[in-house]
Amino acid sequence: MRVAMVGTGYVGLVSGTCFAEMGAVVACIDNDAAKIKRLRNGQIPIYEPGLDELVKKNKAAGRLTFHDNIRQGIAGADIVFIAVGTPTGIYEGQTDLSYVYAAAEEIASYLQQGTLVVTKSTVPVKTGERIRKIISKKNKGLKFQVASNPEFLREGCAIKDFLEPDRIIIGVESQTARRKLEKLYAPLLDRNVPILVTDVKTAELTKYAANAFLATKIAFVNEVADLCEKTGANIEDVSAGMGLDHRIGKDYMKPGPGYGGSCFPKDTRSLVYTANKLGAPTHIVATVIEANERRKLNMVDKISEAAQGALRGKKIAVLGLAFKANTDDMRDSSSLVIIPELLKAGAIIRAHDPEAISHARNLLSGNIVWCEDKEAALKGADMAVIITEWKEYAQLDLAATKKLLKKPLIVDLRNLYTLEEMEKAGFTYVSIGRNPVTKIKARK
Length: 444
Prior knowledge:
Strand content: 5-15%
Structural class: alpha/beta
CATH architecture of the domain at 2-198: 3-Layer(aba) Sandwich
Shape: elongated
Radius of gyration: 24 Å
Number of helices: 20
C-alpha cells in the first residue's frame, strides 16, 4: 500500500517508519524543508531507541522517503495520515487544532478520488467532522473518507509499542475504509493483535479516555505513597499487592515525581476542557491534574527536608532532566518545576541527563552547571537528586558515588534502589513512599 504521513514529529516519524517496516511504501511529509533535508541525510531529530536504524533500513529498501512538497508527497497515496502537533491552545486545556486543519486544507487539492484521510494526531472528539468539511469545501466533488486511528506509543519504547501493540483501534465511516486499514495493518492482524472497529468519534474519544485513566493511576499511587510515608508502610509492597489484582494491574503503579511528557498533561487538560464545554464535566480527571501539579512542588519540599531546610548555597547534583528515561523529551517534565524552585531557594544546580541537556538548556536558566557526565555532576555536591529513571542512574557505583559527594545524601524520586543496599553503602537515602535510611542506621 502507498501511505503518506503528513507531519514528521514524534508520532508521524515513528508511525511512518514502522508502516514502512511492515511493508508499505511511505512518504513522510513536512513543511520544514531543513528538517526534511536532515532526515534525508539520516539525521533523526528526536531520540527514540532504535529509530535511526529503522529509518536507515527502510530508506535503503526504498520504502521510506521524505518530502517537503505536499503534492509530491501524497501523489498516488491510498491512505493519507495527518500526524501534526496538537498543542494546548490559548485557553486552559483547549487543544490547538490549527495545524490539523491547515494540513487538511493543504492536502485537499491533491487528494485522488477514493483516498482515505486518517487522523493519527490526538484530537478532540468531532475533529473528524471538521476535517471532512474543510476538504469538501476546498475540493468539491472529491470522493474521500475520513477515519481515526489513534496512536498509543510510549516514548522510549515506541517502536515496540507500534509493532507489538496491545490493540489497534480504527474509527471508520464505511466497510471500504475498514478494509483499507485492515489491509495496512495485516502483518499485525496476522499475529492476532486485537483490533477494535468503531465509528470515528468513538475512536477519537478512546485515546483521551485511555490516557486520562493511566494518569489517574499515577496520581492515585503517588497519593498512597504519601500516606505510606506518614504511616511507615512501604509503597512498593502496597503497589505489588494491588497490582496482583487483575482488575487493577501492575502497570503505571510506580510512584514518582508526577507524570509529564507530550501526552498525559495535554490530553487530560483537553478532556476536561471538552467535557466542560459539552456540559459533562469530568471531576475525577480535573482533580488528577491538580494532584499532579501539586506533586511536583511536593518533591521540592521533600528535597528541602532532606537538606534540613538549608538549600541556600548548597550544590545539588540533579540526575535526570527528561520527563522519563529513554527520551530527550522535556515537555512538562517534573524537572522544569523542581529545578526553578531549588534555584529560587538559593541552591546551585549541577545537572546531568544522557540525552536531554541540549533541550534543557533552552528551558532552564539560572545558577546551573551543565555536566556532560554524571560523575561531574556528583563531584563536590552536597546531595544528589534523582529525577529521571535512566538505567545508568540505577546502576551507580555506590562506593565511588559516596566519595564524589561532599555528603552521602541521595534523594531518589524514582525508587531505583532498595533500602537495604543504600543502608549497607552508608547513605542517607530518601525515596518515595518508604522509610528513609540514615547514616546512623547504617553504622549499627
